[in-house]
Specification:
Elements: H1 2-52, H2 71-77, H3 80-111, H4 118-126, H5 133-143, H6 150-158, H7 172-200, H8 204-212, H9 217-228, H10 230-245, H11 249-254, H12 266-276, H13 280-307
Amino acid sequence: MTLQQTSTPALGRPAKRRDNKRLWQEMAMIAPAFLLMAIFLITPFLLSFWTAMTNQPLVPRPTPVRFVGLLNFERVFTDPLFWTSLWNVTRFTVWVLPLQCGLAFLTALLLHQKLPIQNLLRGLFFLPAITSMVVVCVIWGTLFQYPSGPLNQIVGFLSGGTIQPIDWLGDPNWAMFSIVLLSAWQAYGFQMIIYLAGLQGIPEELYDAARIDGASALRRFWHVTMPGLRPTHVFVLVITTIQAFKLYTQVAILTQGGPNESTETVVHYMVRAGFEEQKLGYASAVSVILFVIVLLIALLQRKLLRRFDV
């Protein structure tokens, strides 16, 4: 009895030492990630939040910078152009999500099959995603030319001349739709690669078991493929939504927010306030609001998808 009482703490010490050593190893491995997040994410956000509480201009002036509290946020919320830009980018997100993610999903399903030139096709379909957005905008700007651009010629040929040429980028009713088409085509390759990785992660044994049970191809898709891609769907939806709310380059190159502010977005509104009007504090307030909006939407998406078991 005496031997057992004295030997138990002695046996526990090596185990506790191993746990402490493993804990320090894990903290050492996580530390670089935390350090990079602190430098490139947390610190810039805190500095941006502080700048939003001041009247900081882009170029230093003789007058000192003043602390203005929440005045910049109040001005943003009372500016009709901010609400127009927020509505436009929300409209863009709602349109581009099903188009871009659906195209990526269908392409991934096709390229997951055993095709003779599978690797070549994967490279070709992924090519737009690694092409500079500026180059893509120049190409699509040529396609969108009014009235004799290639797209208008295709529309005229398919309709037998009954549909008049469309001013894709000059008509407020078509401008945002044109930006959606361009953006979905350029970016769907990234989501396609994620879906391909998800499909390759589904164990082949599950498909073999379903075949033995007599499941058709459609049943295997609904009961094996779709459940196996649940985490992939969540990731793709969240990352696409965040990318959509950051819409800027296409608008800056092709429409500059027009016509009639129909393609003005929050990021374009923020850049104009910060660099053209030189109101850095005001632009910082817009960036903080955009960050909060995107964060809330991402959290809401995750909650809804978990609720519906997706």
